[in-house]
Amino acid sequence: MTWKLQAITGELEGQEVTVDRDMLVGRHQDADLQLQAAEISRRHAAFLLKDKALWVQDLKSSNGTFVNDIRIDQDKLLMDGDIVQFASIKFSVLAPAKPVENIVGTEVPEIEVEPVSTPVEQSIQQPSEAIATAEVQQAPVEKTPAQQMNEQGMPELSARDANVQVSKDGMPTGMGVPKPAPIPANVDIHATPIPEACDIKTSDECAKEEVTTQKNAMLGLYTIIALVILAIIAWLFFK
């Protein structure tokens, strides 16, 4: 496993330098990586290998050592793709490739992949007329009073007009209005019934007779009121 440096700028641009041990960088003749630019110090920096990791160390150079455009003053751990710069000369760090270990005697099971059939959804297009007929609901038709009367068994106005004579005021003529039943001469509907004096021995029978009398009076009153109402309805109907 060896680290490599690829020159990006400077006199070594495009070349690769292998770092397989500690290396000195500078203009000195004993430097492992000699850079002859005037801005490079004689002993500018050093690459150090520690536990298969690559570090860079600035040796108090005049123009400094940079890692990813940041000047360093202590040892800096380098990663794959980092940019190391000595003054204005730049190098790209290339980490060693990891070996692929072959496992002998291990069979890799084959995985059968079943084809997945995707159902094709077919859109069913309906005629526009069918959709309009299904979606549009018919509005309820309001019936006229004459139609409602016909459904209830009442004769039409045309059939009634042939036999009924109407006056200028719109009142039917020649039609008898039902008269209420005659009220007996001895019955006063406005008078309060006076209970008859009862013998003390038959008080229960007197009470029953009094209740019956009140019921009959009320029934007669209701009958008269009903007849009056029917007469008014008949007059309004034939108007």
Automatic annotation (TrEMBL):
Keywords (A to Z) from UniProt: Membrane, Transmembrane, Transmembrane helix
Protein's recorded name: FHA domain-containing protein
PROSITE patterns tied to this protein: FHA_DOMAIN
The keyword Endoplasmic reticulum is assigned to this record: no
Gene3D superfamilies from the UniProt entry: 2.60.200.20
Signal peptide: none
Organism: Acinetobacter wuhouensis
FHA domain ranges (all copies): 23-72
Pfam family, one: FHA
PANTHER family: NUCLEAR INHIBITOR OF PROTEIN PHOSPHATASE-1
Segments crossing the lipid bilayer: 219-238
CDD domains: FHA
Taxonomy, superkingdom: Bacteria
